[in-house]
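Practice problem: Hsp90 co-chaperone Cdc37
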Amino acid sequence: MPKNSNTLTADKPYQDVFNRELDLLKEQDHRCVQACMEGAMKELEEEERQKRVGPGGLDPLEVYESLPKLHQFCFHRLGTDLVVRSWKLTTS
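Answer key — structure tokens:
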């Protein structure tokens, strides 16, 4: 007879408790895996950020994303000359 044969012939209350405990274990395992994945992703993002950091200690991507949309558009589409001009227009 198998070691856990009582689960094969178990009465309904026992089977219900067993299934509830199994579901809780699965949920706990899922949360643990999710937390580990989130931690690994944060670590990877920080490593990528550290690779981008320039000599002044600034992350060019963070600087770009902190710019107003007009400046981002000018920088991305039209070049740095228009960024300087648009900056002068909005700050004067």
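Discussion: The chain has a mean pLDDT of 83. Students who identified this feature from the tokens alone can consider the problem solved.
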